[in-house]
Amino acid sequence: MPELPEVETVARSVDARVRGDRIVQACFSSHRELFKTPPAEQANGLEGRRFISVHRTGKHIVCELGSGRQIDAQWIVHLGMTGRLLVTRPDVPLAPHTHVRLTLASGRELRFVDPRRFGRLEFRNLSCVSGFAGPGAEPLAIGRGEFAALFRGRRLAIKAALLNQTLLAGVGNIYADESLFRAGIRPRRRAGRLTRAELERLRQALRQILRQAIRLGGSSVSDYVDADGERGFFQLKHCVYLRTGEPCRRCGTPIRRILVAGRGTHFCPRCQH
DNA sequence: CATTTCACCTGGTGGC
DNA sequence: TGCCACCAGGTGAAAT
């Protein structure tokens, strides 16, 4: 489900609800594939610590934790396709596929729910390991020259390059398609063949779209919600994503769907070159 | 090395 | 109503 704007929205809403709160008890499910750190070790590390802050890096939610005032551990949550982090009252019935419950000193619960189990959870004790650092560049912070350099000499499709998290962190299928539409670039163009002007159009398109999507709370295509259960509204602004056969909002030509890098890819054959 | 394909999961939808 | 094929916001391992 979640790409940069959705993860940013979730991180902000979780931060607003749990900052300063202490974890009293941690309950983990037995689906081991979810846990990069063994669940018992995570529960052990979480219990007794306080949320100092929660923020986003790429598609990862990073919870900075402390036993006292200092940050001494991190809990890192990747939502995969269908993961949700929810802060609820404890009497709210458990959703199916709830894999983690953190009981907080305030009496509320932080819950991790993930039907497809593509999410990943990791605990890092900073006295043993370094802090989390994702590999890719932040699309909202990267400059023109650095952005262009990411794609230089690459023969793969520009859409596949946008999805590669080690190049840019946070862009997924929705925002790759939407930014390529806004920049007027076909998704199958070879990344290394884009002109300097096209690359700069793409960088600007990405910035504008990601910022607007964050303002609107992300895209709720089927089930995405933030920590308060609120849906986003950017899906109302989609120009191509999941609009196969519908008229292009700019020129009226039916939107086409193809496969690129194994992912459904949507574009306007008239507006994109 | 760079790039492509596929497996990992559940659930929703639409056709017959 | 049921059954089936196909699709879905992601990623990392294996193959090429």
Quick recap:
The protein has 273 residues and is α+β, with helices and mostly antiparallel strands.
Explain the overall architecture.
This protein is 25% helix and 22% strand. The strands form 3 sheets. A 4-stranded antiparallel β-sheet has the order 1-6-7-5, with helices on one face. Strands 2-3-4-8 form a 4-stranded antiparallel β-sheet, with helices on one face. A two-stranded antiparallel sheet has the order 9-10. It has 273 residues and is of the alpha+beta class. The chain is globular. It has helices at 4-18, 39-46, 144-151, 158-163, 173-183, 196-215; strands at 23-28, 50-57, 60-66, 73-78, 84-88, 98-104, 109-113, 120-125, 256-260, 263-267. α1 runs parallel beside α6 (196-215) and α5 crosses α6 (196-215). It has 2 domains: 4-125, MutM-like, N-terminal (N-terminal domain of MutM-like DNA repair proteins), CATH 3.20.190; 144-267, Helicase, Ruva Protein, domain 3. The structure holds a DNA duplex (16 and 16 nucleotides).
**Helix-strand makeup class:** alpha+beta
Roughly how many Å apart are the termini?
Answer: 28 Å
- Note the overall shape: globular
Instruction: Compute the CA-based radius of gyration.
Output: 20 Å
- The residue fraction in helices comes out at 10-25%
Note the run of SSEs as H and E: HEHEEEEEEEHHHHEE
**Fold-level CATH name of the largest domain:** Helicase, Ruva Protein, domain 3
Our estimate of the beta-strand percent is 15-25%
Determine the mean pLDDT: 96
CATH architecture of the largest domain: Orthogonal Bundle
Largest sheet: 4 strands, antiparallel
Quick one: CATH class of the largest domain? Mainly Alpha
How many strands in all? 10
Q: Quickly count the domains.
A: 2
- Identify low-pLDDT runs: none
Helix count, per DSSP?
6
